[in-house]
Automatic annotation (TrEMBL):
Domain of life of the native organism: Bacteria
Pfam family, one: PAPS_reduct
Database matches in Gene3D superfamilies: HUPs
Protein source organism: uncultured Gemmatimonadota bacterium
GO function terms (MF aspect): catalytic activity
Name of the protein this chain belongs to: Uncharacterized protein MSMEG_1245
Domain Phosphoadenosine phosphosulphate reductase per the UniProt entry, residue ranges: 8-118
Amino acid sequence: MAERVRHILGLSGGKDSAALAVLMHKRVPEMEYFFCDTHKELPETYEYLNRLEARLGIKITRLNPERGFDYWLDIKNGFLPSPNIRWCTELLKIQPIEAWIGDDHAVSYVGIRADENRAGYISTQPNIRPVYPFKEEGLVKADIFRILDESGVGVPSYYKWRSRSGCFFCFFQRKYEWIRLADEHPVLFWKAVAYEEEHRDGRTFTWSQGESLRAMLDRRDEIIASHEAAQARQLLKQANRPLAEVLAAALDEEDDDVGCLACHL
């Protein structure tokens, strides 16, 4: 008797993994969907996952039901993660996925597009084989927006002001996104400030390299003006792009650091 192979698709709360779910849910009826919950996601992310479940008639398994970010921060004695030391990715994304799969053989469907030069999260476990449907079918960013629009799923509502999924204090946020977090979710913004100022490991820590959130807020008008100028330049280049795409392009112009490949899909 042939060994059962599991088919799995991780959802980040972003557009690419959501479009992949739209594309694959009828092709692979046995697909298992999962989301690694850090317990520090934006409210819009949870709303988007619920929308996907309702629209597609799928169930998304939430990993980390008990041990979220604060649990591991305590284990780490208050040592906050950074772009150079991403313990959050290892403990809240990679390990939970591999524990959930266990020794089962699995095909992991990854939402990397044909117009991207990256591989995404690739497990070192020999029983997990990644596949890239978008790359195989030559689908690019415009196709992703089309798939989501035609399905009625649409894009996450945070795309009005933020270009990536991830924790509300993600260190890959651009300065404009931090300012908009303060506007959209002031309680979460000040929680992020508290992490900066009240951690107990002895470092001088800032989520955004070289500038505290308080200092950034003091430069609010300057940061917004810089972003609006970048967005205007992007609109001149191609006026018919979706607003979310223009926002992302403007943010990339200001800061094109690649986000965490296990979080931002």
